[in-house]
Amino acid sequence: MNYNVLAQNCIAWIREWFAPFGPECSAVIGMSGGKDSTVCAALCAEALGRDRVIGVAMPAHGQSINEADEICAHLGIRHLCLPIGRIDAEFNALGSSVCGNGFSVQTEQNIPPRIRMTVLYAVAQTLNGMVANTCNLSEDYIGYATLYGDASGSFSPLGKLCVREVRGIGHALGVPSVWVDKIPDDGLPHSCSDEQKLGFTYETLDRYIREGVCEDLKTKEKIDSLHRRNLFKVEILHIPSFDPGLEVKAP
Fold first, then answer.
1. What is the pTM of this model?
2. How confident is the model at residue 98, as a pLDDT?
3. Maximum CA pair distance of the chain?
4. Which of 36, 105, 112, 133 could form a disulfide with 60 if both were Cys (CB 3.0 to 4.6 A apart)?
5. Burial letters for 193-227: b for 16+ Cβ neighbours within 10 Å, e otherwise?
């Protein structure tokens, strides 16, 4: 695959999508320090100009900004750090009064992504911007995103690109490998990688999505089950996405 061409096609799509909003409208991106937000920011900087991209780090309690400031500095885009720890704590305290024993563990895990999306839209509305959805196809396929949290956004440059394609574009744009090839995780202390949580690698998932091939039956069944259970997320959120014209061969 020619990732240089793919990157330029995505850049052209972003530029065209922003055209109706005028030359003052910016892209607002939640910067996690991972490959997706980094590559998305790099694409937007190429498409709109560095002065029209705003990277926002929003660490929760116990999280670092995970090099978001360094990434923004490297890309030459504006950087904001808006910690959400206090807001997150208030929501968790609310859980005790509403539910007695507090919110469930999964509910508590989903609160920070939803707070972050609220913050991003506040920044966008204040500074004349549009919020980028930074999810990729691999994550969306198995529902590894929070509905109305990181799964939201106004436009999606990476939504139809697998992890391997996002990385390929990152390398084509000259983004340092330390960020493009960084092992995805949630940024929490003593946590594990996304792949350890899922029980399979993104390489396995990407091959299944693009080629329809998965040698391990249990892994195939797990991917299929996750896809079926989480398909509603993609169906609910109709976010304009760059279409690379690549086929999904998984059933």
1. 0.94
2. 77
3. 55
4. 112
5. ebbeebebebebbbbbbbeeebeeeebbebbeebb
**Which amino acid, residue 17?**
W
Burial of residue 124, with CB atoms counted within 10 A of its CB: 0-12 exposed, 13-18 middle, 19 or more buried: buried
- Which residues partner with 53 through β-bridges? 27
Question: How many separate helices (H) and strands (E) can be counted in the chain?
Answer: 11, 4
Q: In angstroms, what CA-CA distances link 177 with 55, 70, 137, 159?
A: 19, 14, 21, 21
Q: Which residue has the tokens 């904001």?
A: 80
DSSP characters over 162-193 = -HHHHHHHHHHTT--HHHHTPPPB---TT--B
Lookup: tokens for 93: 């305290």
pLDDT tens readout for residues 3-41: 999 999 999 999 999 999 999 999 999 999 999 999 999
Q: How far is CA 251 from the centre of its chain?
A: 24
